[in-house]
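DATA SHEET
Item: assembly model
Revision: 1
Owner: S.N.
Input lines:
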Amino acid sequence: MRWPEAWRDPALLDLLKGSAIDTLLIGPGEALGAVRERARKQGLQIDTPPGVSIAKGEWPGVKMARGRDAGAGPTGVPWVNSNGWAIRLAMVQKPDHTVWIDAPPAADSFITPDSYLIAIADSAAYGGRWILSLDAPLAQSLAEGKPDAQRPWKRIVETAAFFAARKDWSDYPPVANMGVLSDFAGPNEFFGQELLNLLARAGAQARAILPGGSFDGIRLLIYPDAAPASAALRAQIDKFTKSGGLLMTSEKRPTDDPYIWANDAVVQLSHRNDLVRFWNSGATGSYVSTNGKQTIAHLLFYSMRGPDSASVWVAGNYRSAQAATIEHPTIEKLGFENKKGGMEVHLPQVSQYVALQLT
Amino acid sequence: MSHCSSRRHFLLSSSAFALAPTLARAAAAPAPAGPVSVARCNTYDSAELVPTLQKMFDQLGGLGKLVKNKTVAMKINLTGAPTYRLGYLPLEDTHYTHPHVIAATAHLMSQAGARRIRILESPWATADPVEEYILRANWDPRDILSAGPHVEFENTNYLGQAKKYSRMAVPFGGYMFPAFDLNHSYEDCDVFVSIAKMKEHATAGVTLSMKNCFGITPCTIYGTGAGKDEPSLVPKGGRGIIHQGDRQPSLSAPSEKDPKAPRLDTWRVPRTVVDLVAARPIHLAIVEGIKTMTGGEGPWVNVEQLGVAPGVIVAGLNPVNTDAVAMSVMGFDPMATRGTPPFERCDSIVQLAEEAGLGTRDLGRIDLRGDTIAAARFDFAGIRKKRGGARPPQIGIRG
């Protein structure tokens, strides 16, 4: 948690007692010395521990334009800001690191208690952690002990606890059928990252692959880097295409518009190979991972309210499904049926995050 | 004079003005009447559906006469995004033409000697192939493509596979538009079939075989994101140009006949539909009501809605006759005019079509075959009455 500058009173550390918040990023200066001291005594970690990569992120949710109109992409689909792709990329680049996302609420953000649920879940679902950063009015209300601050704070604590209790899910490898093969560096950095971002927005399950990485599970590979692949990489790609894999490469098309690349990739692979489909769900995100015995489909609903009567279909052969939400850690009585090579689950009224556990 | 009364006066006078020439035509020659077949069909199981359709087509004179060695274009109804369901119900059980009905019809047409069968739709706000669109609805395009040796899809919401749009004129001159620029598929066919879902409609009262053709207009020209001078490359949004008339179609296409005509969708949409059906005549109209929904054309309509199973199919060679019979099956009077259910707020497409000389809506003149209307009736009208009639449609997601 990023400790608010204005919280000079060490007694405010009592808010964290019993919570899953175990690290504080406290600003410099003597004014916060007492806070620092007491935090240490409480056993809290202060400052970034080793093995953590901090990535600059965006405040997650549906992009709101001036006047509170929801932004939309060229297809009319709500434009969702998510840090999921950045977390997965960072985890590929530094597999031994934990990824923290630094994305404080923008000054003009419209923030509700559920905005914090989304912010925490948007990182945790993908195996990262969002650096809890309170908006100034909430920080002030909490410091003043105002009753109306208790609800959002409770929401934050409950959400953090939910994911802290399920840390093992972060180790599950992703289930993806698209791969973006790039060094994600120098001149290739923007295009490769933007592809990951836009593929996620298009609902595709894509993963970043560094040269030398495995193509396991990939059915469509995108190689957008300007430089030709090395001989070894070319051999790996040739083997992939000869075994039926699809390839999009900068050799055949200019790297001009990542949006068009992403949409073309989705159509080339075909929705026939979708791994997740949603109905009645508004602006969504999803991340699927498995340990071989259990598959977790992390479902994110970025609207101001969670969906009512949403359905989700996850590709694969499953016999049972149960869901977990922040409010209901176990929802066993789900309507589900096997359909078209996957399992379709009917969700009850839920909030903005659901973990679907499929076996 | 109050605002309300002046508005009513304006509407009535503009309506009378627009109807005058067609009424004269109608007086000169009675609107065509042909056979319409009604059949009970309780399931989408091919064991029941295929023989039912076969029998209906036989009652209409046989498919061979209509399609042998011909290219057949079938406009289906996939209104709204494929991610939008009524509750947990599959889209085909509520507001999409069921894929089994599409496949069964294509299969029977193939067997009857159709040379090529083209399944057409203008999916919501995309130039993606129709196959990709329906996969998102959890359909498998192969179920339809394998119905015959030469079955294919085309997305008609944009230029598609042609180099230019087809200009199709409205023979009677048109209520709203003198002609339309459409995807080539609507010209490059010998036989045109409309396969609709039996539904109410927030703007047009009911949506049957004729209203289904509202979706033949490409949104690259008639949509919210249409180019000003030339069609846009890809379709964006719905058909606000026709609904509200907030602007004209791309300048490359024919404009409205009277840019001062009312800007009310309940006036504009029924007239445009009739213009479209006149420009692109329907040779076979099929209204599928095995399973459907009440309360509107899709789950976005803001009234109480129900998934229902009327278990009925209506088919005919004349779309006005067919829709009139389908309305009666739904418990509505096809002779109803504006102000009477299901046209409480809108003009009647069947009335306007009859007055344009496209076909009669007089059940007394229609040659009914198969089951009786009474035996097939499902009381949409009664459900509508209990619900409290028609409510204004929501602005936003509309075809």
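QC remark: The interface with chain A takes residues 83-85, 87-88, 125-126, 128-129, 131-132, 135-136, 138, 140, 234, 236-237, 299 of chain B (CB under 8 Å).
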